[in-house]
Fold each of these.
Amino acid sequence: MQYRKLGRTGVEVSTLCLGAMMFGAWGNTDHDEGVAVIHAALDAGVNFIDTADVYSAGESEEIVAKALAGGRRDDVVLATKVFSPMGPDRNQWGASRRWIIRECEDSLRRLQTDHIDLYQVHRHDPMTDHEETLGALSDLVHQGKVRYLGSSTYPASEIVEAQWAADRRNSHRATRMPARYDLSVPGNQQKLDAADALGALADEAGLPLPHLAVAWTLRNPAVTSAIIGPRTMEQLTSQLGAADVTLTDDVLDRIDEVVPPGHNFTWADAGAVPAMVANKLERRR
């Protein structure tokens, strides 16, 4: 396993990050198997685990806690996220001060830890000012409950806005997504065609397709660690070897021919869509 600095911090993390979305009701409901998969990843040198409050309504965080019990927590850089709805109340989601502080406490309880190493806002909340979000996150850092701050699937423009807000504050710190799998959507069929083309390219390079995908991610100089999301031990085993794969420029060029940089086959794959693009009223003023 190889290790890199996490952004500009002094913390070193493995180039493979264990994503925990598939542990719990969304994927593998067997807690013991989930714990075994996490232990196998740690034994292979992975020291970076990424989960979120919304993954299986908190069950993923609870499984991660079971795996880190007994003295393994201190050896792990533990990341989780906040934003998505966690209940019927209209204030049980988003990036408001009220919700971030409350949900951080709930994540700490589910994770059975006194701090989160990397706390990320899962999605951009257009209804909440960056100043409010950053203020709440900064308070959690000052309280020692969070070590580092981050964001997930934020549009680049909103990251810039958040940076400006931080400068002003001197704060430097298949059923859930059916549109992604509906084959009546032309873009989804195009994804399958692209996967076939990438599979053929992987065969030519003498690599399993998961290794090609992860190694491609790790070649990007902006990437510290690639998140893998195994549901079973077999899937974990098939992905771990990708950390030692280096792709040639020729292979990278051919991947770009199959999927051009920045291209999304469908809107559902974009992760975050700027409001000015998504909202017809915003586009036509």
Amino acid sequence: MDLIRDILKHLNSQEVKRLKAQIKNNPHEFEKVGFLFDLILKYPEKPEDFFAQKLYGKAADNSFRVTKARLKRMMEDLLIGEKSLKEYDADYIIAHLTVKKRLLQGEILMGRGAYPASKNILEQVITMARKYHFIDEGFQAQMLMFRHNCSSLNAADLMREVDDLKNLSLKAASLHEAGLLYYQLSAHLATTTLKKAAEFKDARKIMERLKAIWDFTNAPMAGFYFLKIAIYYTQITSEFKDARAYGQQLLELVRTEPALKSKQREGAALLQMSEICLRAGELSRAHTFSKATLKLYHKDEINYLISLETAWRIAFMQNDLELANQHIAAADDHPSIHLSKMRAGRWKYYHAVMAFKMNAFKKCILLLNEATSVMSDKLGWNIAFRLLEIMALFESQQTDVIDAKIENFRQFVKRNKHDDEYVRAALLTDLLHVWHKNQYDFKKAEEFIHDGILKIKAYHSKVPFNPASFELIRFDNWIEAHA
């Protein structure tokens, strides 16, 4: 049942209606399947035996499993139906499905000896493969034709065909390599800021290889991989002018290339531009790109919820609290908000930040209690969560529990002190220690706090504070204001 539920969560309302209509139009063949589907819609979280009892009056057996398998297959087939593909709004998806079907048809006809008909289909495949840069399918179609024709070719034509196929196979292999390199480096860049020289060197080497693959294959997908990695890299290295240039190039690529053109990829490119501008401190431009991103997605899509996080951070940093609250309300109403504990926890954290900003400190603490899932992320979220909790506890005059929270924070930073990401956290620990030692008396600790703030400012003169950080209420600013 888990697989059926997983698919169901990612069908839109029109697809659910179409599946109902399909079952209704075949009442005899799909009577049990229709009953099961109605029950799942009504009771999505019930266990398997509940549905088996309703359908067959007994625990799940082979008959129930057959019915369940039929429903799952119908749901899967729906995804590649013509209407669903059109709703996806990406011609290359429809073209890819068509090419794969035609390739198989051409191979079957060739196997049956219908050579003219097979050749006609395979030539169509090659034409479409070139238009959309389906290198694998183009190679397979040409290989099938070569396999049939090779015995009748003269030596010169034979070698020319072999060379063409070798070149095409190299391009296909290179494109697969580009995909592997992209996911390898993007995963690494998501958890590091490249403090070590060797990391910079390795990242640059992969970027250069991706660019070489793009030049060799001329495949838009290779360009997509290179530009995305270049954007990640230049954001980390604070080369925002280069990041914007790469971002604009990516946006143009996904808007003009048939092999990439889709609202999903255009939305991803626009979101990337909003993140670049956010990190560069260009909040007005970030807001413009963020609005354009949200307009591309239906409000029930998961990509809308993902984009909404960036929109919220921009609104909060612009001090547009009304818009920030609207984004929180939209997230709370989103059907996918609870599919991921981490994502649900992040939105509770954003809500807690809003509560702190509006001086609702006790509400902030209650919301943080619902956001503890973010602490599973050791980089960024954990620190931001702990600091906000300490500030909220002090502001709500719950100083009796701050001692333990500060000690926990100190131990957490100590365990991770080898990581360059925790330099700022270590400096904040010194501030916390002095403040704690003076019984949270800002006047007594004023001189020490002042010195600590100077150290943090000196650090950020070399390593700028990241505006896209999860530490949305900065502890150093808060304690400086009090002191």
Amino acid sequence: MLERLINPDYEMIGYLLIEQNSLDKNLKLLSQLIDERGYEEEKINEIISQIQNLKSTRNFFIHGVWSDVMVKDDIPIIHCANHKWIRKKVSNGTHSTRYKSQTFTLGDLELTIKKADEISNKLKNIWDVLCDFNDFE
């Protein structure tokens, strides 16, 4: 979508501009582009918000180290740890931590997948229209 909004006539330009971007940078750029282009602002801002709400779980999926399935109180759970360094500014300097972790149930994972599917479908619908939309003004 970013490639199409940046340069609809030559997608390689858009690709080169976003190739090494993080998710945060791409979401910020998308927000700036839709503000400038005036294209589906409300829908895309809603999608950006939904993606940001899933970002923490998404980071576990991508960067996490998953344990074997365990059973706690008769509920299957899986533990995930993110070994990435996390730095936060605090009043007396910077605090660094590592090994942020979270426990997921099967229901948690299914809900996350459902939300991601909904976002994907919304993006596909916008993409389909955007591919046919030549004049952004």
Amino acid sequence: MRSIPLVLASLALPLAAGCGADCGKPTQINGTYAVFANVIQRSGSNMDHFPSYMTPANGWTEWTLTWNRNKPAKVSVVIDGQPYTATGSWDEVECGNFTLDFAGTYLSINDSTHEFAVTGDFVAFGPQIEGRWDWEETWTSAQGETGTFSTIGQVSGTLVDSQ
């Protein structure tokens, strides 16, 4: 009877060592995405003059993501042709999960400016990225009005061109 636990233990070791999933490399997200951002909760100042359809936190934008290194990663994020450098982390256990943190100034097509900082949790699966983020910005409209905007939002993107 003593040999049965030993046999079971010796079988379990190779199985435990081989159970790790290969999540792939974070470079699998590299490419250009059509991204829709949806506001879930919002707050801010001077909201009557907020150019809400000109911020990347609300509506359609085009993102190009390029994961450069791992742990912690420098990730190139280009939104509508405007470059930013993000810090990212790729989850080696929960495949496809990653984070991005970045900040910068976004200039909209109608000349409103949006100085922002964002922290997001995302998941990649197939040609899709999905996620939630905390977005904060100080904005100036094309007419010179200023204010602040904060949101907890959802992000959904579809790959349109891989790298």
